[in-house]
Amino acid sequence: MRASAKSFAKINIGLAIGPKRPDGFHGLRTLYTTIALHDTVHVEVIDGKGIEVRCDHPEVPRDASNTCYKAAERVLAAVGKTAGVRITIDKRLPVQGGLGAGSSNAISTIFCLEKALKMPLESAKRAQIAADIGSDLNLFLYGGLVLGTGRGEEVWPLEDLPSIPLVVVTPEVGVSTPKAFQSWDSLTENEGSDTIKTFNQAVYAWLNSTAVSGVPAVGGDRVETLLLDLVRTGISNDFERVVFPEIPVLREVKCALEREGAAYAAMSGSGSTLYGLFRTPQEAQQAAQRLSAAGMRAVATRTLPRSEYWAGMFESSH
Ligand code: C5P
Fold first, then answer.
1. pLDDT at 208 over 60
2. Whether residue 133 has its Cβ less than 6 Å from ligand 1
3. Residues 6+ apart with CB under 8 A from 34
4. Which of 165, 175, 221, 315 has its CA 20 to 30 A from that of 81?
5. Residue whose C-alpha is closest to residue 133's, from 54, 56, 77
6. Which string of DSSP letters, residue by residue, matches 79-95?
7. How does the average pLDDT of the chain come out, rounded?
8. What pTM, to 2 d.p., does this model score?
9. Which residues fall within 8 angstroms of residue 61, CB to CB, at 6 or more apart?
């Protein structure tokens, strides 16, 4: 009774932060897309009871604060089952990196435990468990291109776009999301912020233009550039305004991606991961090689459309 799944990462394409809500969270708008980089999570149902988390990465907690632990605990409660659960995380994605790895690991745990127990959850229950654990788990219940609203947990899958090449750079430093939100509050305390409005307008205009032109009806080049059309609307990540001054090297990485020819470069989530979108896989490969030669941890990958996200999830890992 065991199951394994790939936990794919996400990047944020634009992220607009609103005011702090009475519940302490911030309203936000963002576009998430899954990418082809992944961890792998193995879940075993064993005799006895208790949840054990194994991971050889020193910064991954193995206690009840681990997102996979929380996920397993909630799935067992939801199906009314007492069992021992052993979760092993093969960690390749950065910790506190803005790629949603901990969130994706938790979603893999939910799917694997349902499979191992042969007790599927209703999708509404799964969504509730996900939102209960954190704000950016729910996107992984869809994969592909997803609009995030609310505190990020309200997710709206958008029509899939073709995969686009990208380079991901993961600096050594991690960023604490709650601290980044606090810095945003201090920054906007007096001046306020209306980036949510700007984001809404940009995304709405983009959705409208893709709907009007009709994705299938237009030529290859146009389809390839849909995501680039989106970033050309000027959407950006508010977190850059607070994280770059605190960790100046991140701004340098963004500039380096731009110098290497990225059509768009930005930080993902609250960082510290930066990414650049490229027009061809070759350009992305070359940029990653040159950035690696300059001492950065850079890897060429691509965005992962929804169909591939699901097809790849339970494929055996190598
Ligand atoms: O939901 P998640 O675990 O990702 O959030 C971590 C922390 O980040 C929250 O406890 C909260 O302080 C902050 N946060 C926020 N607004 C959001 C998401 C997260 O203030 N929309």
1. yes
2. no
3. 8, 9, 10, 139, 140, 143, 144, 303, 304, 306, 309
4. 315
5. 77
6. HT---EEEEEEE--SPT
7. 93
8. 0.94
9. 53
